[in-house]
Amino acid sequence: MKLDRELLNAPPIVNPFVENGFKSYPVYARQELLREHRQRLHVQPGIEINLTLEGKAAYVIGDTVYMQSPGQLIVFSGRVPHQFYIDTSCQYKRAVICFDENGVRKEAEFHSLPTLHFGRLSGAAFRQISLTPEMFANVRWIVSRITEEIEERNSGWKQVVGSQLVSLAVFINRSVETEDRRSDFDPIRLCCDYIDKHLHEELSLQSAARMCHVSPEHLTRQFKREKGLSFYQYVLQQRVAETKRMLRNCPEMSLTEIAYAAGFSSAAQFSRVFKSAAGLLPSQYRTQSRGGKI
């Protein structure tokens, strides 16, 4: 997806929704189905947590762009200029929570609770996390509960929000610790995570090896040993899996658009690889999926 450099280079503005929300309570939450927009980067106090529920979007944080897919969570300082831009090929749904650390400390319902702690996240510009299916379900439920309590404001709602926000911090820190352990001790898992997050880009064995801090030869041997596939075979396997998802769920996308969105160099390469892997042409797979045969 292309980003408008004019928007990115414009001076950031203050996010009025979050800023006004913090005037009444230091936690702001909502779930929303979003459409394409032309808004420039913005800033606000505190920490922002974004959980992608459906679709894809590019999150611009500072000078860097991070792609978000379902099950991915990104946490960052609201003081860093940021904005999201939607991949219009599919609808995009997210859950967002912002909280003002200073304001939270002043609220009475937090006094009897454990310290709200986001570890290294508070001092960093951002942290992107790929949640396990179980953790994704837990975090999604917590975020929904916080959003509902803030919207409905029934008796004891502040106590519920406080306890759930602490639970959210615990689950996020657990996920960070898990990812860090994997990064430290499992270069193949790190490499696979990188591939899954960057399928739409050009992927090379050399760049993946540099990212994993190993030689291309070492990565090739480990990949074959653990996955039973070469690096490039795994990349193609994941690209085919992603195109299957889009063929089923994104009827408005053409085959060429799907090919490029999944990182294939051309529609011809996409068709050739897909038929070899699935036994059907992409068009045949889409037709059968519509008829409930797949």
Automatic annotation (TrEMBL):
Molecular functions per Gene Ontology: DNA-binding transcription factor activity; sequence-specific DNA binding
InterPro entries cross-referenced by the UniProt entry: AraC-bd (IPR003313), Homeodomain-like_sf (IPR009057), HTH-like (IPR037923), HTH_AraC (IPR018060), HTH_AraC-typ_CS (IPR018062), RmlC-like_jellyroll (IPR014710), Tscrpt_reg_AraC-type_HTH (IPR020449)
Coiled coil segments of this chain: none
Keywords noted in UniProt: DNA-binding, Transcription, Transcription regulation
Species for this entry: Paenibacillus hemerocallicola
Protein name as annotated: Helix-turn-helix domain-containing protein
Pfam families found in the cross-reference section: AraC_binding, HTH_18
Classification via PROSITE patterns: HTH_ARAC_FAMILY_1, HTH_ARAC_FAMILY_2
KW DNA-binding (keyword) present: yes
Domain HTH araC/xylS-type stretches: 189-288
